[in-house]
Design a protein that fits this description.
Layout lengths: L2 E6 L2 E6 L10 H15 L6 E6 L4 E3 L4 H4 L4 H20 L5 E5 L2 E3 L1 H8 L2 E5 L3 E3 L13 H9 L1 H10 L3 E2 H6 L5 E3 L4 H13 L3 H13 L4 H13 L3 H11 L10
Parallel strand pairs: 2-3, 3-5, 4-6, 5-7, 6-8, 7-10
Antiparallel strand pairs: 1-2, 8-9
Helix pairs in contact: 1-3, 3-4, 3-10, 4-5, 5-6
This protein binds 4-(N,N-dimethylamino)cinnamoyl-COA.
């Protein structure tokens, strides 16, 4: 099972379960998670969701590099648009509160998924970053839009352009996560927060979510899809992904 699902007293915990690849998001994981979120959105028994990763090492270590390494520009653009609609927007627009319990690496698409959630709680060992430019591509699942929304433009530029991941304590300081707790307490902390939220009126929660999100423009996401797709035509992208697979440092030709 790529997605483990556990419903208890209105709280649905969804666990991305691909620990051998640090829960990297391949097409199958994206499809399975998308279906689970869609089902939860219309299931009256579900009042809030917690999203986490299997194992103690990673929430999600990004999109599956081995899968997208061979994509061309058209596939990149299509998959970015499709992925944004099929999963990341679906999480953000879920009418029930979604809390990401970030239990380790949240890199690239993994951080983008956590940022699509409404609230983030991280374990002390979490490392969060958008390393895409080190692979010759840019964040393609909403990262260029949601990171500045959360941490402000300057910090987002620094994180995106340096490709450097930051520890949980820094993520807390810049507002990327809402709380940091020891790893052993992470799931309970997320559940407790969900419990507090679930005491409130579901219709009001849903209205609040929609209202907060209405304040953010959607235009930037379209620009991200275009630029993301174009990256797949570059030699830098080929070099970045091939170097990762071969476990060597990339030598970017700059075109
Ligand atoms: N994809 C595929 N496999 C991955 C992976 C990933 N993102 N991350 C880890 N793995 C695999 C490793 O290859 C390794 O597999 P084997 O060699 O055992 O077969 C296994 O998981 C365990 O990883 P490591 O051996 O590397 O574990 P370490 O503890 O040594 O290192 C690490 C942990 C997280 C530092 C390292 O695994 C790492 O650097 N991972 C890659 C991080 C990263 O760059 N993530 C991708 C960011 S780019 C798209 C839309 C959006 C995106 C892409 C496409 N489309 C619409 C097409 C977004 C792109 C990204 O997310």
């Amino acid at each position: 099972m790529l997605i483990l699902s556990e419903l208890h007293e209105g709280l649905l915990v969804l666990t991305i379960n691909r620990p051998e690849a640090l829960n990297a998001l391949n097409g199958d994981v994206i499809r399975a998670l998308s279906e689970a979120i869609q089902a939860a959105s219309t299931n009256d028994d579900v009042r809030a969701l917690v999203l986490t990763g299997s194992g103690e090492k990673a929430f999600v270590a990004g999109a599956d590099i081995k899968e997208f390494a061979e994509f061309n520009a058209e596939q990149g653009r299509a998959l970015s648009a499709q992925g944004q609609t099929a999963l990341f927007d679906l999480v953000e627009q879920c009418p029930k509160p979604v809390i990401a319990a970030v239990n380790g690496y949240a890199l690239g698409g993994g951080l983008e998924l956590a940022m699509a959630a409404h609230i983030r709680v991280a374990s002390e060992n979490a490392l969060l970053g958008l390393p895409e430019v080190s692979l010759g591509v840019i964040p393609g699942y909403g990262g260029t839009q949601r990171l500045p929304q959360l941490v402000g433009k300057g910090k987002a530029m620094e994180m995106i352009l340096t490709a450097r991941a930051i520890p949980a304590s820094d993520a807390l300081a810049c507002g990327l996560v809402n709380a940091v707790v020891p790893q052993a307490e992470l799931l309970n902390a997320a559940k407790q927060l969900a419990g507090q939220i679930m005491k409130n009126a579901p219709t009001a929660l849903s209205a609040a979510l929609k209202s907060v999100l209405a304040g953010y423009s959607r235009d930037g996401f379209g620009a991200e899809i275009e630029h993301f797709g174009a990256c797949f035509e570059t030699e830098d992208f080929r070099e970045g992904t091939q170097a990762f697979i071969a476990k060597r440092k990339p030598q970017f030709p700059g075109k």
